[in-house]
Amino acid sequence: MTTTRPPTQVAYAARAVDASKVYGSGEAAVRALDHVSVNFERRRYTAIMGPSGSGKSTLLHCLAGLDRVTSGRIFLGDFEISAASEKQLTLVRRNDIGFVFQSYNLIPTLNALENITLPMELARHKPDPAWLDTIIDTVRLRDRLSHRPNQLSGGQQQRVAVARALLSRPEVIFADEPTGNLDSKASTEILQFMRHAVNEFGQTIVMVTHDPNAAAYADRVVFLADGRTVDELVGPTEATVLDRMKRLGA
Amino acid sequence: MGRVTLEQILGKKLRLLLTSVAVVLGVAFIAGTLVLTDTLGSVFDNVFTTANNGVDAVVRAVQPFKASGRNQSSNDTRPPIPDSVLPVVRGTPGVARANGSLLRFALVQDRNGQAIQNQAPAFGLAWYPRGDNVGDALQLVSTYKGARAAQPSGADDVALDVTTADSGGFRIGDRVQISFANTPPRRFQLTGVFRFGGSDNALAGATLAAFTPATAQAVLNAPNQQGTWDELHVRATAGVSETQLRDRVNASLRRAGLRAQYEAITGTQAANEQSNNIKSNLSFFNTFLLVFALVALFVGAFIIYNTFSITVAQRVQELGLLRALGASERQVVGSVALEALVTGIVASLLGLGLGILLVTPLRGLLGAFGVKLPSGPLQVQARTIIVAFVAGTLVTLVAALAPARRAARVSPISAIRDQAVAPTSGRRRYIWGLGFTVVGVALLAVGLIGQGSNAALTVGAAAAVVFVGVAMLSPLIARPVAEVLTLPASWLHSVTGLLARENATRNPRRTASTAAALMIGLALVSLIAIFGASAKASFASAIDNQTRADFILSPKQFSPFSPGVAQAVRDGFARISRKPATVVEVRQGTGEVAGTVHAVSGLSPDFQAVVDVPVRGFDHAAFARGGVLVWKDASPLCGPSGHATCTTGTTLAMRFPIGGTVQLPVAGVVTDRKALPAQVDYMVSLTGWERHFTQTLDFFVVVLKPADVSTHQADAVVSSAARQFGGVNAQNKADFKNSHLAQFDQILGLVYVLLAFAVFIALIGIVNTLALSIYERTREIGLLRAVGMTRVQLRRMVRGEAVVVAVFGSLLGLVIGVGFGGAIVQAAHSQGIGLTIPVGQLAVFVILAGVAGLLAGWLPARRAAHLDVLQAIGTE
Known about the structure:
The structure holds two protein chains of two kinds.
Chain A: E1 12-23, E2 30-41, E3 45-49, H1 56-63, E4 71-76, E5 79-80, H2 86-96, E6 97-100, H3 112-122, H4 129-138, H5 154-167, E7 172-176, H6 184-201, E8 205-208, H7 212-215, E9 220-225, E10 228-234, H8 238-248
Parallel strand pairs in A: 3-8, 3-9, 6-7, 7-8
Antiparallel strand pairs in A: 1-2, 1-4, 4-5, 9-10
Chain B: H1 2-11, H2 13-51, E1 57-61, E2 81-82, H3 85-90, E3 95-101, E4 103-108, E5 122-126, E6 138-140, E7 143-144, E8 147-148, E9 157-161, H4 162-168, E10 175-180, E11 186-196, E12 207-211, H5 213-220, E13 228-229, E14 231-236, H6 242-255, E15 262-266, H7 267-314, H8 316-324, H9 329-368, H10 382-408, H11 426-449, H12 455-473, H13 475-485, H14 487-491, H15 495-505, H16 508-546, E16 551-555, H17 564-576, E17 582-593, E18 596-603, E19 615-616, H18 620-624, E20 628-631, E21 651-656, E22 660-670, E23 682-685, H19 689-692, E24 700-704, H20 711-725, E25 728-731, H21 733-776, H22 778-786, H23 791-827, H24 839-856, H25 858-865, H26 869-874
Parallel strand pairs in B: 5-12, 9-11, 18-23, 20-22
Antiparallel strand pairs in B: 1-14, 1-15, 2-13, 3-14, 4-5, 4-10, 6-11, 7-8, 9-12, 10-11, 16-24, 16-25, 17-18, 17-21, 17-24, 19-22, 20-23, 21-22
């Protein structure tokens, strides 16, 4: 568990080393990641941006152990994900990684609280009650805990997803277009919660987005194009991100 | 539109196949049963055509009344025909030859004294010398095991069919011991062996012993029936047809004043009658098997309904798109109906093929449970093919009707909005369900209170209606039941268990109709269990508490045995003791009272020494002189008017197979008949039984040894008598009880195996529903895996859902089964059966159903566990 994670020699929460991902073979082969090397620092909020087809989602999936790289290596802390078995990957996902997807983040048969505690229950771990309270209050879901997903708004559902990701204090939370399906008010809320998690709880977050406004909440933005890292920006603002994106031809 | 549908169906071959399986098995069951029955029918047609080969006409006694029920051979109620009729027939113009024929019980013993008997009967018959014979079914084998063979010509000669001679290990010249129904066993010399219509084996497995005509009459007929035949066989001169011969013989009979008693029929008609007689006995098996086939088909219909409901729900966007593009409601219904039609046709085709393959195992199955049937070339008649296709297609179409109509209600807006089909108003469904259930229970009451041949049909219909009604109502209780069932999961705080429960209850209707299929199987299984346990307990109690016996002799193969056995027992005891043994014989016959045929039991006058059968006003002397005992609830048919209540001293007019109508003195009224082997209304004493019945064999012999004979000595006497005659079990009371209980179990076992088909189909339904549900929940499964559910946990979750569904279904079935079983047993109270509920056995059924559910969940669970996480999440 990550509550008192001992400091490791590695300074990065996640790393890709010379990672390539090829879909298909021969004539039809598509190189989604082309020798990408990138590091994600601990306790930082990093955004990955790039035009459609740039490989940003593929990179996120490979970092999160949902997909495997064709060549190169992927590390989560000092653990090499690219060499792990399916069973190990499941345990890593359960214990060391949190997910927030664009939509359909919740199990429809479970209520909000059950959804939040689901990964802990699967691991048969007892959630720390104080921590659970903190998170529920942070995402302001106290009065919605017994509601099922179909009784929650899109923004509320996404807040449940963020709470679920935070509960196990994972090494990294990977968020794939978390605000893609939300209106601007709900988007702002979600982005503020994630920012808050990094600032106050020391959480590491890696987020794929195509929204410069969302990227502006991050500490650093990594730009991808044609499967390669082409640029990066520390301390982004909406304007600087937009400017870089224009240069990439997005 | 049609082509779009067809392409879709072919695009989902696996689903088509899985859905079809539900119907395939039911159709296969029907087809297999029909082919088996037709095959047996053709075997018997051949046998009797052969047996009557060369016989142009048959002369026999006019049947006094028609025997009803099974196990009544065609001759049962016909009196014999005396030698004196032969000259009349022989003197008819156009008659080339005529002679008498007998076919009666004759049991051959092998060289070790063991009776040679299969499931088929053992017959003795008369074999006329070449040139004198009418029928030519028997062909002498010229040499047997190197020795020259000859037809029997002396009084002590016998010939056997090849199969019997082989299994007895006989050679020409050997002494052969043969026992008979009415005359003492005798030893004969084997002079020859014969084939029957070109086949080594005769008459579908029967053993045959052929004697000279004079010997046959002497040994096969009862002493008071000497000089008689079962029937006369007649051969025509050249140029005289069968019908001409028949008419001429009937004319001579009329001239001789014998036409009222005797009749001539053509040889062809005789063969047909004999064959039909056997076939109508077999039709019991046909009906028996078809009932289970219909159950299987009924269960299949639930699965079809469920599968189509789910696929329509899943295709809601696609159906909406079709509607948006201009498809009419009728076209949408048509598209679903077309899919059902294709499924039905594919299923029928596969079912027909499987059914033909099923014939041999089916015969083997019946054989394993003691019903040996002869084999022959398979008969696949056009009727079988038509029935299979109509049944398979119709069931599929009807079951898909409701889902198709629901599909038509999909609005075009569904194409763009992700929403489920608006279900029919729940309240309407439940009102209908309640209505069905009430009507079903009412039907059950009608079926049980009203008597008659339709009672079974009414009860069956009641069950079907109740099944549909409960299936419609059961979504109401799916959730609470699932919650109770998963209590252990909540105690263990198992999130997989919790998810399994939630999955099982998220669509209560789907769960309910999946469970309903299993409910039907379990209801029938528990009904049979209750019925079986009650019958067994009542039988055991009748033997334990109401029967006194040191030994009970009973037939090994359901065919009655010679009364010589009882006599041998009496003689055996007389040799070693001065005190008398009590030997009570029990026989079965038929008699006609007021125009209705009744089963009649024959009992030794002193029967009350061995069974507690209280008789009100018992006039022992009148009974011993040939009086009748009447069951207390029998219809009032006594007295000169024929409408008076039967009490001691009144008379009852009963018509017997031999001797016509007799006014029998009523010797008493039976007030409790539970201890009797047959629950009949009329019991006559065995005194003079031979005067009234052609059938003179015993079904049971109950023995109380003389007080001064040791059990060991008595055992020797009884066993020796049984061995001498063969085909008889001699058992003490406990062994008799246990072996009969084992027979009950054997029959119950057969029924369970046949019901297992229906249960198996229901399990396929669970597999099918789960597979479709998992397809539906692909994204959700991906998400679960993404947040850390292991494959093991995922499998456990899916299997848990399967178990919840299975146990839910089996509990529903149990409730219905106990209700029906209890009601039916209560209604059978007058048959001497009291209700016993085998609680342990029923509990085992539920546990087995849970295990079966676990197995049914295996494949879908595996499939779910092997979904690619990333792809699953990406699925929209």
